[in-house]
Design goal:
mainly alpha, elongated, two-stranded parallel ribbon
């Protein structure tokens, strides 16, 4: 692949990554559609038991509704997919899957901690698990796409 094309991909990736981070901040901290209450009604909420909320949403999926369960379970995974996909594109040093996954876990821990401190959500260990899984799936998507790209361009040379 030509250097010009690589640079173009990197610039577009940076733009998309910045947009993604902006959307992530909006949906996690500012959006009123996801259970946000007025500041005077906010209280500290947290779950430190792994898989408790995941199991609860799965067991009661028929009672709470498909969309609520989907948004809680798959939404946490899907929301962090781009992080795992874009990070290795943006930095050659972050092409290691373990490093990308640990970076995603760190970001998720930061998000959950901010939600707890500012009472804009619930600190949930299950969200850490699902978000980190999303980063891992995002990295695996990058790895597959990068392998396909290498196969295509090696055949042309």
């Amino acid at each position: 692949m030509k250097d010009e094309a690589k640079n173009r991909i990197r610039v577009i990736s940076w733009i998309l990554f910045v947009i993604y981070i902006g959307l992530l901040i909006y949906f996690l901290f500012l959006s009123e559609e996801y259970g946000r209450t007025s500041f005077d009604q906010r209280m500290y909420r947290y779950n430190l038991t792994p898989f408790q909320e995941i199991k609860r949403f799965w067991i009661y999926r028929h009672r709470v509704g498909f969309w609520v369960s989907f948004l809680n379970l798959a939404g946490n995974v899907i929301g962090f997919l781009p992080f795992g996909f874009f990070l290795p594109i943006l930095s050659r040093r972050l092409r290691n899957g373990v490093l990308v996954t640990m970076s995603g876990f760190g970001l998720s821990l930061l998000v959950e901690s901010i939600q707890l401190i500012f009472k804009v959500g619930c600190f949930d260990v299950d969200d850490l698990i699902l978000n980190t899984l999303g980063v891992l799936f995002g990295y695996l998507s990058f790895w597959i796409c990068n392998g396909i790209r290498r196969m295509i361009y090696e055949k042309k040379i």
